[in-house]
Amino acid sequence: MRRYLHVLNTTDFRRLWAGATVSTLGDGMTFVALSWLVLSGPGGTAALGLLGICYTAPVLVGGLAVGPLLDRFDKRIVLIADSLLRAAVVMSVPVTAALGAMPDWLPFVVAAGYGLLKMVPLAGFPAAIPQLVEEDDLDAANALESLSFSLAMVIGPAAAGLLIDRIGAADVLLVDGVSFLLFALATATVRPLSPATTPGDRRPSLGFLARDRVIVGTTVAFMAFNVAVGMLMVTGPWLAGTRLPGGAAAFGALLSALAVGEMVGAAVAGHGRPGGQPDAARVRAIGTVQGAAALAFLALLASPRQVPVAAGFFAIGLLSAPMTVWAQSLRMRRIPPALHGRAFAGLRTLMQATPPIGAALVTPLLVGSHLAVAAVAMTLIAGLPALYLIAGRPVRDSAERLGSVG
Protein backbone atom coordinates (compact mmCIF):
# COMPACT_ATOMS: atom_id res chain seq x y z
CA MET A 1 0.00 0.00 0.00
CA ARG A 2 2.88 2.39 0.75
CA ARG A 3 4.11 2.14 -2.84
CA TYR A 4 0.72 3.14 -4.18
CA LEU A 5 0.38 6.04 -1.74
CA HIS A 6 3.85 7.22 -2.67
CA VAL A 7 2.95 7.30 -6.38
CA LEU A 8 -0.39 9.02 -5.69
CA ASN A 9 1.46 11.74 -3.78
CA THR A 10 2.70 12.88 -7.19
CA THR A 11 0.10 15.56 -7.86
CA ASP A 12 0.02 15.46 -11.66
CA PHE A 13 -0.13 11.67 -11.78
CA ARG A 14 -2.92 11.66 -9.20
CA ARG A 15 -4.98 14.16 -11.20
CA LEU A 16 -4.57 12.32 -14.49
CA TRP A 17 -5.28 8.97 -12.82
CA ALA A 18 -8.43 10.30 -11.12
CA GLY A 19 -9.76 11.76 -14.37
CA ALA A 20 -9.06 8.54 -16.24
CA THR A 21 -10.82 6.54 -13.53
CA VAL A 22 -13.99 8.63 -13.81
CA SER A 23 -13.93 8.36 -17.61
CA THR A 24 -13.47 4.61 -17.51
CA LEU A 25 -16.39 4.34 -15.09
CA GLY A 26 -18.57 5.86 -17.79
CA ASP A 27 -17.09 3.52 -20.39
CA GLY A 28 -18.01 0.50 -18.28
CA MET A 29 -21.61 1.61 -18.26
CA THR A 30 -21.65 2.43 -21.96
CA PHE A 31 -20.81 -1.01 -23.33
CA VAL A 32 -23.66 -2.54 -21.34
CA ALA A 33 -26.05 0.20 -22.51
CA LEU A 34 -25.07 -0.14 -26.17
CA SER A 35 -25.36 -3.93 -25.99
CA TRP A 36 -28.83 -3.71 -24.49
CA LEU A 37 -29.99 -1.17 -27.05
CA VAL A 38 -28.92 -3.54 -29.81
CA LEU A 39 -30.29 -6.70 -28.17
CA SER A 40 -33.69 -5.05 -27.79
CA GLY A 41 -33.65 -3.99 -31.44
CA PRO A 42 -34.58 -5.93 -34.56
CA GLY A 43 -31.16 -7.56 -35.11
CA GLY A 44 -30.87 -9.69 -31.96
CA THR A 45 -27.75 -11.84 -31.48
CA ALA A 46 -26.41 -11.24 -34.99
CA ALA A 47 -26.58 -7.48 -34.43
CA LEU A 48 -24.72 -7.93 -31.15
CA GLY A 49 -21.83 -9.47 -33.04
CA LEU A 50 -21.84 -6.53 -35.44
CA LEU A 51 -21.77 -4.15 -32.48
CA GLY A 52 -18.69 -5.92 -31.12
CA ILE A 53 -16.97 -5.50 -34.47
CA CYS A 54 -17.92 -1.81 -34.67
CA TYR A 55 -16.67 -1.27 -31.12
CA THR A 56 -13.22 -2.73 -31.83
CA ALA A 57 -12.38 -2.81 -35.57
CA PRO A 58 -11.86 0.99 -36.02
CA VAL A 59 -9.04 0.76 -33.46
CA LEU A 60 -6.75 -0.08 -36.37
CA VAL A 61 -7.39 3.26 -38.05
CA GLY A 62 -7.34 5.38 -34.91
CA GLY A 63 -4.25 3.72 -33.52
CA LEU A 64 -2.21 4.55 -36.61
CA ALA A 65 -2.97 8.26 -36.19
CA VAL A 66 -2.65 8.75 -32.43
CA GLY A 67 0.97 7.59 -32.02
CA PRO A 68 2.58 10.40 -34.05
CA LEU A 69 0.28 12.91 -32.34
CA LEU A 70 1.41 11.82 -28.88
CA ASP A 71 5.09 11.98 -29.88
CA ARG A 72 4.81 15.43 -31.49
CA PHE A 73 2.32 17.34 -29.32
CA ASP A 74 1.61 17.92 -25.65
CA LYS A 75 -0.17 14.75 -24.48
CA ARG A 76 -2.57 16.85 -22.39
CA ILE A 77 -3.93 18.60 -25.47
CA VAL A 78 -4.44 15.32 -27.30
CA LEU A 79 -6.27 13.76 -24.34
CA ILE A 80 -8.49 16.81 -23.83
CA ALA A 81 -9.48 16.98 -27.50
CA ASP A 82 -10.29 13.27 -27.48
CA SER A 83 -12.47 13.58 -24.37
CA LEU A 84 -14.49 16.48 -25.76
CA LEU A 85 -15.06 14.75 -29.09
CA ARG A 86 -16.16 11.48 -27.51
CA ALA A 87 -18.50 13.31 -25.16
CA ALA A 88 -20.28 14.76 -28.19
CA VAL A 89 -20.48 11.35 -29.91
CA VAL A 90 -21.91 9.57 -26.86
CA MET A 91 -24.44 12.26 -26.01
CA SER A 92 -25.95 11.98 -29.49
CA VAL A 93 -27.86 8.88 -28.29
CA PRO A 94 -29.72 10.37 -25.29
CA VAL A 95 -30.32 13.62 -27.20
CA THR A 96 -31.92 11.93 -30.21
CA ALA A 97 -33.79 9.51 -27.94
CA ALA A 98 -35.25 12.43 -25.98
CA LEU A 99 -36.42 13.91 -29.28
CA GLY A 100 -37.94 10.58 -30.28
CA ALA A 101 -35.76 10.42 -33.36
CA MET A 102 -32.96 7.94 -32.57
CA PRO A 103 -32.30 5.77 -35.64
CA ASP A 104 -31.53 2.05 -35.25
CA TRP A 105 -28.08 2.53 -36.72
CA LEU A 106 -26.90 5.19 -34.24
CA PRO A 107 -25.63 2.74 -31.54
CA PHE A 108 -23.35 1.18 -34.16
CA VAL A 109 -22.03 4.61 -35.17
CA VAL A 110 -21.36 5.47 -31.51
CA ALA A 111 -19.57 2.13 -31.05
CA ALA A 112 -17.45 2.84 -34.14
CA GLY A 113 -16.60 6.28 -32.75
CA TYR A 114 -15.45 4.64 -29.53
CA GLY A 115 -13.28 2.26 -31.48
CA LEU A 116 -11.79 4.99 -33.64
CA LEU A 117 -10.75 7.09 -30.61
CA LYS A 118 -10.19 4.28 -28.13
CA MET A 119 -6.42 4.28 -28.55
CA VAL A 120 -6.00 7.92 -27.50
CA PRO A 121 -6.35 7.31 -23.73
CA LEU A 122 -5.11 3.73 -23.99
CA ALA A 123 -1.81 4.96 -25.46
CA GLY A 124 -1.78 8.49 -24.04
CA PHE A 125 -1.99 7.58 -20.36
CA PRO A 126 0.84 4.96 -20.36
CA ALA A 127 2.95 7.18 -22.63
CA ALA A 128 2.62 9.92 -20.01
CA ILE A 129 3.44 7.72 -17.00
CA PRO A 130 7.27 7.74 -17.44
CA GLN A 131 7.09 11.57 -17.52
CA LEU A 132 5.13 11.70 -14.27
CA VAL A 133 6.84 9.11 -11.99
CA GLU A 134 10.32 7.78 -11.28
CA GLU A 135 11.52 4.59 -12.97
CA ASP A 136 11.41 2.64 -9.69
CA ASP A 137 7.70 3.49 -9.44
CA LEU A 138 6.71 2.20 -12.89
CA ASP A 139 5.25 -1.09 -11.65
CA ALA A 140 3.13 0.68 -9.03
CA ALA A 141 1.99 3.35 -11.50
CA ASN A 142 1.08 0.76 -14.12
CA ALA A 143 -0.75 -1.26 -11.50
CA LEU A 144 -2.71 1.85 -10.53
CA GLU A 145 -3.67 2.35 -14.18
CA SER A 146 -4.93 -1.23 -14.28
CA LEU A 147 -6.64 -0.79 -10.91
CA SER A 148 -8.31 2.35 -12.23
CA PHE A 149 -9.74 0.45 -15.15
CA SER A 150 -10.76 -2.53 -13.03
CA LEU A 151 -12.38 -0.49 -10.25
CA ALA A 152 -14.39 1.46 -12.79
CA MET A 153 -15.45 -1.74 -14.51
CA VAL A 154 -16.60 -3.21 -11.21
CA ILE A 155 -18.93 -0.29 -10.56
CA GLY A 156 -19.83 0.70 -14.12
CA PRO A 157 -21.38 -2.50 -15.55
CA ALA A 158 -23.26 -3.34 -12.36
CA ALA A 159 -24.62 0.21 -12.11
CA ALA A 160 -25.57 0.17 -15.79
CA GLY A 161 -27.45 -3.10 -15.40
CA LEU A 162 -29.54 -1.58 -12.62
CA LEU A 163 -30.01 1.82 -14.25
CA ILE A 164 -31.14 0.39 -17.58
CA ASP A 165 -34.26 -0.99 -15.91
CA ARG A 166 -34.99 2.38 -14.31
CA ILE A 167 -34.02 5.13 -16.77
CA GLY A 168 -33.41 3.24 -20.00
CA ALA A 169 -30.23 2.32 -21.88
CA ALA A 170 -30.11 5.56 -23.87
CA ASP A 171 -30.02 7.78 -20.76
CA VAL A 172 -27.24 5.68 -19.23
CA LEU A 173 -25.03 6.97 -22.05
CA LEU A 174 -25.50 10.49 -20.73
CA VAL A 175 -23.40 9.52 -17.70
CA ASP A 176 -20.48 8.55 -19.94
CA GLY A 177 -20.67 11.89 -21.74
CA VAL A 178 -20.35 13.71 -18.42
CA SER A 179 -17.42 11.48 -17.42
CA PHE A 180 -15.52 12.53 -20.54
CA LEU A 181 -16.03 16.18 -19.67
CA LEU A 182 -14.66 15.56 -16.16
CA PHE A 183 -11.61 13.78 -17.61
CA ALA A 184 -10.94 16.77 -19.86
CA LEU A 185 -11.17 19.10 -16.86
CA ALA A 186 -8.78 16.99 -14.75
CA THR A 187 -6.27 16.70 -17.60
CA ALA A 188 -6.27 20.47 -18.08
CA THR A 189 -4.87 20.87 -14.54
CA VAL A 190 -1.81 18.66 -15.23
CA ARG A 191 1.53 20.26 -16.10
CA PRO A 192 2.61 20.21 -19.76
CA LEU A 193 3.58 16.77 -21.08
CA SER A 194 5.79 17.83 -23.94
CA PRO A 195 7.25 15.22 -26.31
CA ALA A 196 10.65 13.77 -25.52
CA THR A 197 13.59 14.87 -27.64
CA THR A 198 16.67 13.04 -28.89
CA PRO A 199 20.12 14.39 -29.90
CA GLY A 200 19.63 16.33 -33.12
CA ASP A 201 15.87 15.80 -32.68
CA ARG A 202 16.18 12.56 -34.68
CA ARG A 203 13.28 10.31 -33.76
CA PRO A 204 13.98 6.56 -33.59
CA SER A 205 12.21 4.29 -36.05
CA LEU A 206 9.43 1.84 -35.19
CA GLY A 207 11.67 -0.80 -36.76
CA PHE A 208 13.33 -0.98 -33.35
CA LEU A 209 10.27 -2.77 -32.01
CA ALA A 210 10.34 -5.47 -34.69
CA ARG A 211 13.93 -6.32 -33.76
CA ASP A 212 13.11 -6.78 -30.07
CA ARG A 213 11.79 -10.34 -29.75
CA VAL A 214 10.65 -9.78 -26.16
CA ILE A 215 8.28 -7.05 -27.30
CA VAL A 216 7.22 -9.01 -30.39
CA GLY A 217 6.65 -12.25 -28.47
CA THR A 218 4.57 -10.72 -25.68
CA THR A 219 2.57 -8.62 -28.15
CA VAL A 220 1.66 -11.60 -30.32
CA ALA A 221 0.65 -13.58 -27.23
CA PHE A 222 -1.55 -10.70 -26.04
CA MET A 223 -3.11 -10.39 -29.49
CA ALA A 224 -4.14 -14.04 -29.35
CA PHE A 225 -5.48 -13.64 -25.82
CA ASN A 226 -7.57 -10.68 -26.94
CA VAL A 227 -9.12 -12.75 -29.71
CA ALA A 228 -10.50 -14.97 -26.94
CA VAL A 229 -11.59 -11.88 -24.98
CA GLY A 230 -13.45 -10.64 -28.04
CA MET A 231 -15.27 -13.96 -28.16
CA LEU A 232 -16.05 -13.63 -24.44
CA MET A 233 -17.47 -10.10 -24.82
CA VAL A 234 -20.08 -11.40 -27.28
CA THR A 235 -20.70 -14.58 -25.29
CA GLY A 236 -21.35 -12.65 -22.04
CA PRO A 237 -24.46 -10.75 -23.16
CA TRP A 238 -25.60 -13.79 -25.16
CA LEU A 239 -25.49 -15.89 -21.98
CA ALA A 240 -27.33 -13.18 -20.03
CA GLY A 241 -30.00 -12.95 -22.68
CA THR A 242 -30.51 -16.67 -23.39
CA ARG A 243 -29.06 -18.92 -20.65
CA LEU A 244 -28.66 -17.06 -17.35
CA PRO A 245 -31.36 -15.57 -15.12
CA GLY A 246 -31.35 -11.83 -14.51
CA GLY A 247 -31.12 -10.27 -17.96
CA ALA A 248 -29.12 -7.05 -18.14
CA ALA A 249 -28.21 -7.26 -14.45
CA ALA A 250 -26.68 -10.70 -15.06
CA PHE A 251 -24.48 -9.31 -17.84
CA GLY A 252 -23.41 -6.43 -15.62
CA ALA A 253 -22.59 -8.89 -12.84
CA LEU A 254 -20.38 -10.95 -15.17
CA LEU A 255 -18.42 -7.90 -16.28
CA SER A 256 -18.12 -6.80 -12.66
CA ALA A 257 -16.73 -10.22 -11.69
CA LEU A 258 -14.16 -9.88 -14.48
CA ALA A 259 -13.21 -6.41 -13.23
CA VAL A 260 -12.97 -7.48 -9.57
CA GLY A 261 -10.52 -10.17 -10.65
CA GLU A 262 -8.51 -7.61 -12.61
CA MET A 263 -8.45 -5.29 -9.61
CA VAL A 264 -7.14 -7.98 -7.26
CA GLY A 265 -4.60 -9.21 -9.82
CA ALA A 266 -3.29 -5.72 -10.52
CA ALA A 267 -2.97 -4.93 -6.81
CA VAL A 268 -0.81 -7.99 -6.31
CA ALA A 269 1.26 -7.43 -9.47
CA GLY A 270 2.13 -3.84 -8.57
CA HIS A 271 3.97 -4.74 -5.38
CA GLY A 272 7.10 -6.03 -7.07
CA ARG A 273 8.70 -7.64 -10.07
CA PRO A 274 9.10 -11.41 -10.53
CA GLY A 275 12.31 -12.76 -9.06
CA GLY A 276 15.44 -13.83 -10.91
CA GLN A 277 16.85 -12.13 -14.00
CA PRO A 278 14.29 -9.32 -14.59
CA ASP A 279 13.35 -9.66 -18.27
CA ALA A 280 13.46 -13.46 -18.38
CA ALA A 281 11.45 -13.76 -15.17
CA ARG A 282 8.83 -11.30 -16.38
CA VAL A 283 8.35 -13.05 -19.71
CA ARG A 284 7.96 -16.48 -18.07
CA ALA A 285 5.61 -15.05 -15.43
CA ILE A 286 3.50 -13.44 -18.15
CA GLY A 287 3.29 -16.75 -20.02
CA THR A 288 2.36 -18.67 -16.87
CA VAL A 289 -0.55 -16.43 -15.90
CA GLN A 290 -1.75 -16.27 -19.51
CA GLY A 291 -1.86 -20.06 -19.70
CA ALA A 292 -3.79 -20.25 -16.44
CA ALA A 293 -6.22 -17.55 -17.58
CA ALA A 294 -6.87 -19.52 -20.76
CA LEU A 295 -8.12 -22.49 -18.75
CA ALA A 296 -10.63 -20.24 -16.97
CA PHE A 297 -12.58 -19.80 -20.22
CA LEU A 298 -13.83 -23.37 -19.73
CA ALA A 299 -16.03 -22.10 -16.88
CA LEU A 300 -18.52 -21.05 -19.58
CA LEU A 301 -19.45 -24.72 -19.84
CA ALA A 302 -21.09 -24.45 -16.40
CA SER A 303 -24.03 -22.36 -17.72
CA PRO A 304 -26.87 -21.97 -16.85
CA ARG A 305 -25.36 -22.00 -13.33
CA GLN A 306 -24.45 -18.36 -12.84
CA VAL A 307 -22.00 -18.66 -9.92
CA PRO A 308 -19.39 -20.89 -11.63
CA VAL A 309 -19.66 -18.84 -14.82
CA ALA A 310 -19.05 -15.66 -12.82
CA ALA A 311 -16.13 -17.40 -11.07
CA GLY A 312 -14.62 -18.06 -14.49
CA PHE A 313 -14.94 -14.38 -15.42
CA PHE A 314 -13.28 -13.49 -12.10
CA ALA A 315 -10.39 -15.90 -12.74
CA ILE A 316 -9.80 -14.51 -16.23
CA GLY A 317 -9.55 -11.01 -14.79
CA LEU A 318 -7.41 -12.10 -11.84
CA LEU A 319 -4.81 -13.77 -14.06
CA SER A 320 -4.83 -11.34 -16.98
CA ALA A 321 -4.14 -8.18 -14.94
CA PRO A 322 -0.54 -9.14 -14.02
CA MET A 323 0.10 -9.76 -17.72
CA THR A 324 -0.70 -6.12 -18.44
CA VAL A 325 1.23 -4.63 -15.50
CA TRP A 326 4.43 -6.62 -16.00
CA ALA A 327 4.45 -6.29 -19.80
CA GLN A 328 3.80 -2.54 -19.69
CA SER A 329 6.70 -1.89 -17.29
CA LEU A 330 8.89 -4.11 -19.44
CA ARG A 331 8.07 -2.09 -22.54
CA MET A 332 8.63 1.25 -20.81
CA ARG A 333 12.15 0.18 -19.87
CA ARG A 334 13.06 -1.28 -23.27
CA ILE A 335 11.59 1.40 -25.57
CA PRO A 336 13.32 4.81 -26.00
CA PRO A 337 11.27 7.70 -24.50
CA ALA A 338 11.06 9.54 -27.83
CA LEU A 339 9.24 6.49 -29.23
CA HIS A 340 6.76 5.99 -26.37
CA GLY A 341 3.77 7.59 -28.10
CA ARG A 342 4.09 5.70 -31.36
CA ALA A 343 5.20 2.51 -29.63
CA PHE A 344 2.33 2.32 -27.15
CA ALA A 345 -0.17 3.38 -29.79
CA GLY A 346 1.15 0.83 -32.27
CA LEU A 347 1.43 -2.06 -29.83
CA ARG A 348 -1.90 -1.40 -28.15
CA THR A 349 -3.51 -0.96 -31.54
CA LEU A 350 -2.32 -4.41 -32.55
CA MET A 351 -3.53 -5.91 -29.28
CA GLN A 352 -6.87 -4.09 -29.25
CA ALA A 353 -7.55 -4.79 -32.93
CA THR A 354 -7.87 -8.55 -32.48
CA PRO A 355 -11.12 -8.72 -30.43
CA PRO A 356 -13.21 -8.16 -33.59
CA ILE A 357 -11.72 -11.38 -34.95
CA GLY A 358 -13.04 -13.12 -31.84
CA ALA A 359 -16.43 -11.43 -32.17
CA ALA A 360 -16.69 -12.55 -35.79
CA LEU A 361 -15.58 -16.11 -34.97
CA VAL A 362 -17.94 -16.67 -32.06
CA THR A 363 -21.12 -15.14 -33.49
CA PRO A 364 -22.02 -18.04 -35.83
CA LEU A 365 -21.23 -20.51 -33.04
CA LEU A 366 -23.64 -18.75 -30.68
CA VAL A 367 -26.31 -18.41 -33.35
CA GLY A 368 -26.09 -22.21 -33.63
CA SER A 369 -25.98 -22.55 -29.80
CA HIS A 370 -22.56 -24.25 -29.93
CA LEU A 371 -21.36 -22.90 -26.58
CA ALA A 372 -19.05 -25.83 -25.81
CA VAL A 373 -17.18 -25.41 -29.09
CA ALA A 374 -16.85 -21.69 -28.41
CA ALA A 375 -15.45 -22.25 -24.90
CA VAL A 376 -12.85 -24.76 -26.08
CA ALA A 377 -11.83 -22.47 -28.94
CA MET A 378 -11.30 -19.56 -26.51
CA THR A 379 -9.10 -21.75 -24.32
CA LEU A 380 -6.89 -22.92 -27.17
CA ILE A 381 -6.54 -19.50 -28.79
CA ALA A 382 -5.61 -17.83 -25.50
CA GLY A 383 -3.43 -20.63 -24.14
CA LEU A 384 -1.22 -21.96 -26.92
CA PRO A 385 0.91 -18.77 -27.39
CA ALA A 386 1.64 -18.77 -23.66
CA LEU A 387 3.81 -21.86 -24.10
CA TYR A 388 6.32 -19.84 -26.17
CA LEU A 389 6.64 -17.30 -23.37
CA ILE A 390 6.95 -19.94 -20.65
CA ALA A 391 9.81 -21.54 -22.59
CA GLY A 392 11.68 -18.21 -22.44
CA ARG A 393 12.29 -18.12 -26.18
CA PRO A 394 11.60 -14.38 -26.64
CA VAL A 395 14.39 -13.43 -24.21
CA ARG A 396 16.94 -15.75 -25.83
CA ASP A 397 15.97 -14.70 -29.36
CA SER A 398 16.14 -11.02 -28.42
CA ALA A 399 19.54 -11.43 -26.75
CA GLU A 400 20.88 -13.03 -29.91
CA ARG A 401 19.73 -10.10 -32.06
CA LEU A 402 20.13 -7.10 -29.77
CA GLY A 403 22.60 -8.11 -27.09
CA SER A 404 21.74 -6.94 -23.58
CA VAL A 405 18.81 -4.49 -23.59
CA GLY A 406 17.67 -2.81 -20.34
UniProtKB/TrEMBL annotation:
Listed transmembrane segments: 16-39, 45-70, 77-99, 105-129, 141-160, 172-193, 214-240, 246-269, 281-301, 307-327, 347-366, 372-391
Example of a GO cellular component annotation carried by this entry: plasma membrane
Annotated membrane topology: Multi-pass membrane protein
Compartments where located: Cell membrane
Pfam families assigned: MFS_3
Keywords: Cell membrane, Membrane, Transmembrane, Transmembrane helix, Transport
Cited PANTHER family: INTEGRAL MEMBRANE EFFLUX PROTEIN-RELATED (PTHR23513), STAPHYLOFERRIN A TRANSPORTER (PTHR23513:SF11)
Protein name: MFS transporter
Organism whose genome encodes this protein: Virgisporangium aurantiacum
